[in-house]
Each structure stands twice: as structure tokens, then as C-alpha cells.
Amino acid sequence: MTLLRDDDLAAAFDHASRSYDALVAANPGYHAHLRRSVRRLGLPGYGAGLRLLDLGCGTGASTAALRSELPAAHITAVDASAGMLERAAAKPWADGVTFVHAPVERLAEAGVTGPFDAVFAAYLLRNVDDPDAVLTTVHDLLAPGGRLAVHEYTLSGRRADRAVWTMVSRGLVQPVASALGDGALYRHLRRSVVDFDTADRFTDRLDAAGFDTVRALPLPGWQTGITHTFVARRPETAR
Ligand SMILES: C[S@@+](CC[C@H](N)C(=O)[O-])C[C@H]1O[C@@H](n2cnc3c(N)ncnc32)[C@H](O)[C@@H]1O
């Protein structure tokens, strides 16, 4: 199958935004895993004085994880889907969260220029046309020493993990999504994970984009070997 990209992907997320929160609530650990990835950034002091960028914020699940772990930080949350972003912005946020409608490929045009102390990207990079270009943008938006956490479906390379992923997505997720009229998006989800980097390959990609202290950390439960947090840092000085 052809993966969805750009406007087609944004339109699919616009439609799926109606049921997105209910679907992720049925995924055990979804919100707890996002919070764990935020803690893995290792940022101090509840985030006081820090500027954070949530790329591909969707309906705000990742934004809520940032808010919960780093309540004193300022968060800029960006998404290409107007439908997803509308739902995020309608939630009761305290001060300190700004939502921006833009594709990650056109952040500067939308006025998102940094520098940021940390960037969080949950379930985004598998969806973009050119992950290396996006990682270069993220690197340049970070302050020297700034931190990145990528929370992403990245298979281990073991056949058993790929089989679990195929079983969960074909057997559980796709039937429900198809009944809701979102079959194409969730077929894209299954295929995009299979086609995307393994955890080792994505670690290499981060190294090649100029990040240092790159680590791939597993997530618990059924997602072990399927989903990882990648933490990395923009070096203090140019390499
Ligand atoms: C699977 S959702 C994840 C949402 C949220 N981060 C979470 O953890 O629940 C992926 C989001 O990335 C957004 N997205 C995909 N490609 C994008 C791009 N090129 N630029 C900005 N957002 C994009 C989609 O619109 C969607 O809302």
C-alpha cells in the first residue's frame, strides 16, 4: 500500500480526530508511556523557565504529558492537522501553552523559530516524508545543549515483535478504525511502522543528524520491542 503523506495524511487525521482520544484511551499505558518519555528528557525543576516544543501534538496527549511532568515550562505545540489541533486547543490548559497549525516542514513560516530547551516528538517522525530533514530542523531549533525525546514505534528487528505488532494492528485496531470510517489512516499506521526504521537504524539517524548522547530506551508492556523513547542532545559546541 502507498503510505499517506502531507495533505492526505492531514485530512485523514482531521477525520480521525473525532475518535482519536477514545482509541488511545483503549491502548494500555498510552498516556503513562508518554509521561515516561518526558521524564527521560531529564529536565530539572518542573521545567521552570524552559521553552518546550511538542511536534505533532495531535489532540494534545503529548502536550498533556509535558504539562504534567514539567508544569512550569512554556510549551509550543504544533500540528499539521487542523482537526487534531482544534481538539487539542479546546482542552482546558492553564497558561503557558501555545498551539500552532503548521507542518513540521514549514515551522519558520509559521513563526516557530526557537531556540527551544527541549523538543518532544511522539508518533511523528514515521509520518514525515524526509525524517533526516526534520531532524536537522529540530537540531537547529534547539539551544546548544538542548534535549530531544522522540517517542516512536520502532521495531526491534526481531520477528516476534513484528508479529505482535501485526496482530495488534490487524486484529484489534483496524477493525474498530474501519467501523469508524478511518480504515485508510490505520492501515497507514500498520504499514508505516513495518516500513520505518528499526530502533538501531533510528539511533544511527540521530547520530548522523549531529545529536550526541543518543540512547534508545524500551517501553514496558506489550510495546516492548515495538515502541522506544530516543533521547539525544544538541552538542554544546558544533562538531
Ligand atoms: C499519531 S498522532 C500523535 C499525536 C500526539 N503526539 C500523541 O502522542 O498522541 C501524529 C500527529 O502528527 C501529525 N503530523 C503528521 N505529519 C505531520 C507533519 N508533517 N507536520 C506536523 N504534524 C504532522 C498528525 O497530524 C497527527 O496529529
UniProtKB/TrEMBL annotation:
The keyword Electron transport does not apply. The keyword Iron-sulfur does not apply. Residues 53-146 form the Methyltransferase domain. GO terms for molecular function: methyltransferase activity. Keywords: Methyltransferase, Transferase, Ubiquinone. GO terms for biological process: antibiotic biosynthetic process; methylation. InterPro entries: Methyltransf_25, SAM-dependent_MTases_sf. This is Ubiquinone biosynthesis methyltransferase UbiE. It comes from Streptomyces bungoensis.
